Amino acid sequence: MQAQGKKLSEDEWEKGKVHIKASELEFGSKIAEGKYGTVYKGKCRGQTVAIKLLHNQHLSEEKLEELKTEVEIMTRLRHPCILLLMGVCTDPNNVALVMEYVEGKGLDRILHDAKVPLSQTQQLRIAKDIAKGMNWLHCLDPPIIHRDIKPPNILVNANFDVKVCDFGLSCVKEIPKPGDKLRDTAVGSPIWMAPEVLSGHLASEKSDVYAYAIVLWEILTRKAPFSDVKSFEEFLDDVIDNDKRPPLPDTTHPRLARMIQSCWDGHPKRRPYFAEILNELDEILVEISIKEEPAQEIWKALKAKEFMGEHYPFFVAWENLIEALAKVLNVPELKTSSTDKAYLCLRTLLATPYRDFTRDKPLMTVTCEAFGRFLDCFGPLIDEDKNIITKLVEICEKPWFHGDIGRNDAESRLNSSKENKKGLFLVRLSSNNDSCFTISRINKDNKIVHQRIARDKRGNYLVQVGEELKAFKSLLDLIEKGERDLNLKVACGESRAFNIIFAPLIESRGYLSEMPSASPETAEKPKKPKKTGTKKKKEKGEKKERKEKKEKKERDEKKKTKK
User: Fold this and answer.
1) Which label site among 20, 394, 483, 537 has the fewest CB atoms less than 10 Å from its CB?
2) Using alpha carbons only, how large is the chain's radius of gyration in Å?
3) Does one domain contain both 202 and 234?
4) Is the peptide bond before 520 cis (omega within 30 degrees of 0)?
5) Can you tell me the mean pLDDT for 22-29?
6) Does the keyword ATP-binding apply (predicted)?
7) Is 148 tagged catalytic?
């Protein structure tokens, strides 16, 4: 552990408020154990914290001073993607770092747990947050070099928020002097070390970039890097002399592959800075999520309008997107009328509330992933044949289309339907990246089955019928012509979010038994029809007539009894 700066006097040390006495620490359960210390959940001054008790409890006076100086620097670091270092205890046999406590897991435990699903968007979000934290460190004056970037040193919470941590090996940037000898030993973890560091050269911002590239490879593949290497000597030969790197999957997006390759380039000067990586990741995410170039340009143009800059490109404000779509598609009513059926269909399908408790109403947003999936299902965006908005409305008005619901919701709706069970079906957006829609239906054996609908490069809709893969020009065509082959007899029209939009139309066709709301903001509960004056008089007359008949019957029965 090395740091630059003057020795702190006892007064300065106390003023810094970073010195913590051993008596102020309460140790709880053990969280993790690493090469340099054991981490415990604990309390300090009433606050839940993470306490890293160093294995080496016999630091020299010089090392203690280095530790104090580095902690003094690092407690000033404030960034959402950097774990906050709160202080240090240097009391005998209690040398420990005190950090903020984060309820989460190390990235390594998430990546190598097959039970934890990770979408590509989630993977890139993690990658971007790591880059944001590292860019902050490198932009400091002087820069701070992490020197040990690896998945165990990255914390991820339940919301997939990232904290770069374990700065026990960070140091203020070292500037080599003429005549300096190469280091005999490198500090960090070899698997993630840059070739020049393995060779004994000083660590730099660019060696952190190399380590980041290996971590990014792990995030994408969810495998351990260099797992095929049998010895450390072989590893050194491969990385330093032969420029060997982990193999990128063939399915890696070309632009992402190029970025990773530039990050782990054998020549440090050819590697990008984290500021460049952040910009490139934004572009890559848009291109991965949205395949059509005109739609990509729409999304990228929204970056300048987004006041929530830290959330771009993952989501944008709904109103900004709908305004851009109205302009590109030349459909002005999309942005001028919130009662327009096309507006309401799009909003129901794409918009989700962003929880901000400082606002009276939730801000509606659209994720890049949702917009891309919308285009995959209903696109292309620009079509000479038929406007994408027209196609969307045509499908949303069908009683069998339920939009973005999951498998469990689909089964629940089919089971609770009042219609005849056999042949009952609904269509929903698919949760699988390889398909766009899913037909959930009750087959002839009275069992629920889920059948995926994919699209080919020509835009045809493909569905498996027995051993044959059949192609249809449109989803409407598929449902109509596949009725007999797939046993699609009765549309399940209950509990649809779109019912409130097409209520009069659906009621006239006899599909609707109830009208659920489309969204909390637009929904209104169905009102009972008001009784007219004529109807009220008629009901009153009928009630009086029934009462008179009852009284007459009672009188007749009394007369019979007397006789």
Assistant:
1) 537
2) 33
3) yes
4) no
5) 94
6) yes
7) yes
